[in-house]
Amino acid sequence: MSDAADHPGVVARPPMLYGIAFIAMAILEWFWPRPILGGAVGLWPGIAIAVLGVAIAVWGRRTMTAAGTNVDPMLPTTAIVTSGPFQFSRNPLYVALTLLYLGFTVALDTWWGLIVLVPLLVLMHWGVVLQEERYLEQKFGEPYRQYRSRVRRYV
């Protein structure tokens, strides 16, 4: 694989996609409020879900950094990471972003968060995850296929 092509070719950086989705959710909620529960009932559960997402993200990032590979999917992957949260999910950072987003959705008490999440997850699956999987299989071959057969894609 040439250096110029040594990256997965994802559609965009995942934090940017989740940020755009959050902004879309906030704008929709501003103009057309759609509460899930009404009131502040979801505030603390939402914060708890968001904190769990942040904890998984920090754990995953530290694990990737310790393995000596790039966290940014726009850069080359130098190793298959199989420790830390990568023992349980091949995409723990994306699970973490989804938990963070869901935490905000629950805390802000808006159906828009769930509605916007659907196309976001489709875009993440097709435009990021499948691109990364193709790249990793091409780059690492059998060791990646073995890892993929042992560990679930998400949860």
Q: Approximately how much beta-strand content do the residues carry?
A: under 5%
State Rg: 17 Å
The average pLDDT score comes to 95
- What can be said about the biggest beta sheet? none
Helix-strand pattern, N to C?
A: HHHHH
Low-confidence stretches: none
Q: If helices are DSSP runs of H or I spanning 4 or more residues, what is the number of helices? A: 5
The class by helix and strand makeup works out as mainly alpha
Helix content: 55-70%
How would you sum up the global shape?
elongated
Strands, total number:
0
How far the N terminus sits from the C terminus, by CA atoms, comes to 30 Å
3D structure, described in words:
The protein has 155 residues and is mostly helical. The chain has helices at 14-31, 43-67, 92-108, 111-140, 142-150. It has a domain at 43-150. The protein is built from 5 helices and no strands. The chain is elongated.
What's the layout of helices and strands?
Layout: H1 14-31, H2 43-67, H3 92-108, H4 111-140, H5 142-150
Helix pairs in contact: 1-3, 1-4, 2-3, 3-4
Quick structural summary:
By secondary structure, this protein is an all-alpha fold.
Name a few traits of the molecule.
5 helices, elongated, 155 residues, mainly alpha
